[in-house]
């Protein structure tokens, strides 16, 4: 009886949707490192920025293999404008220079990246689109973190407009030495670093022919390998144990809500699950959500959708057995209906299935 009381109190839907005990913080996932340049890129938008030469936004992109960055100024962020900038600023440009088409593009769920125009562009060039889960920018962290570096570099050029400073900023970010790569993004792309403006004024001394130069150059290029991105802080993780077995979950609402709004919605049925993402049935649609927004739902059998689990209620009429010829005449009378039992406050009592046969 004690366990039944515990299960009943834990299954209060309103309480579970309102009370917050602890949020889920799952471990960071690792992305597979691509084996070629420019085959997997991350893109995003920044802005609105202060208007400069008619531009207020930027389409940013970064290659996961070489960390080569790009930033393309935009006048607006309509789907057609973003698609045109991606085609001219990355796809066409890098194919012309290096004959590389991106095979996969990771983006968030912005309206520009989920539009029909953007999907048509990807389909034309055989590009596979990967969208992050809603309210989970960490999945696009490769480009999100670079935004901080880009904005900090632009803000250092206070005397010029940011559009005018952008080429010099990108040149510096492409030639900067990265500790994890042990080289610069330019070296990963071209095999050698770019010539910086300061080197134009340095008198280069002619070097004697070195028979081992070509050999050293080949060895150096062969040592350039893609390195997985790393996280620079170890945050504590927490995941409910019940999340791996519960059939239903509650979804946290991360959008701004009016006062006294419940922070969770649901419960929703779980269709499939991984270590980082769940696929749930929300409004008769399959929705992919991150595990960090979920909490397990404790439900009684009678609180689950009746179309999925139907239980016989104590108040349902029980059909009378067919009278036998050998039974006395009074046995042919219909059995009295079992009236539902109510408490003093008017709440209907639901007995566990194993005890229903003993309830009179």
UniProtKB/TrEMBL annotation:
Residues 30-205 form the Integrase catalytic domain. This is Retrovirus-related Pol polyprotein from transposon 412. One of its GO terms (molecular function) is nucleic acid binding. One of its GO terms (biological process) is DNA integration. Gene3D superfamilies: Ribonuclease H-like superfamily/Ribonuclease H. InterPro entries: Integrase_cat-core, RNaseH-like_sf, RNaseH_sf. It comes from Araneus ventricosus (Orbweaver spider). Residues 305-348 are annotated as: Disordered.
């Amino acid at each position: 009886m004690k366990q039944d009381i515990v299960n009943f109190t834990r299954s209060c839907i309103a309480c579970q949707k309102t009370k917050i005990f602890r949020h889920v913080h799952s471990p960071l996932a690792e992305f597979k490192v691509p084996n070629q340049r420019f085959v997997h890129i991350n893109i995003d938008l920044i802005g609105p920025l202060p208007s400069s030469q008619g531009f207020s936004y930027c389409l940013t992109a970064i290659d996961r293999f070489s960390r080569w960055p790009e930033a393309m100024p935009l006048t607006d962020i309509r789907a057609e404008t973003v698609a045109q900038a991606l085609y001219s600023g990355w796809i066409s440009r890098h194919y012309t220079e290096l004959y590389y088409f991106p095979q996969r593009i990771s983006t968030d769920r912005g309206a520009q990246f989920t539009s029909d125009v953007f999907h048509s562009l990807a389909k034309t060039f055989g590009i596979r689109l990967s969208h992050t889960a809603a309210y989970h920018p960490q999945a696009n962290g490769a480009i999100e973190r670079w935004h901080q570096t880009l904005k900090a570099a632009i803000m250092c050029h206070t005397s010029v407009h940011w559009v005018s400073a952008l080429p010099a900023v990108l040149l510096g970010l492409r030639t900067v030495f990265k500790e994890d790569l042990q080289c610069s993004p330019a070296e990963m792309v071209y095999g050698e670093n770019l010539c910086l403006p300061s080197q134009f004024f340095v008198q280069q001394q002619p070097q004697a022919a070195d028979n081992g130069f070509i050999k050293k150059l080949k060895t150096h290029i062969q040592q350039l390998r893609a390195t997985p991105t790393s996280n620079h802080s170890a945050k504590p993780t927490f995941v409910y144990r019940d999340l791996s077995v519960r059939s239903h979950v509650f979804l946290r609402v991360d959008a701004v809500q009016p006062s006294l709004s419940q922070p969770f919605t649901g419960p929703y049925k779980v269709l499939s699950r991984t270590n980082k993402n769940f696929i749930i049935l929300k409004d008769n649609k399959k929705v992919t959500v991150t595990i960090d927004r979920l909490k397990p739902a404790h439900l009684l059998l009678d609180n689950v959708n009746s179309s999925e689990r139907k239980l016989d209620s104590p108040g349902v009429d029980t059909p009378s057995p067919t009278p036998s010829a050998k039974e006395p005449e009074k046995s042919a009378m219909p059995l009295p209906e079992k009236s539902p039992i109510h408490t003093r406050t008017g709440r209907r009592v639901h007995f566990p299935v194993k005890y229903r046969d003993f309830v009179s």
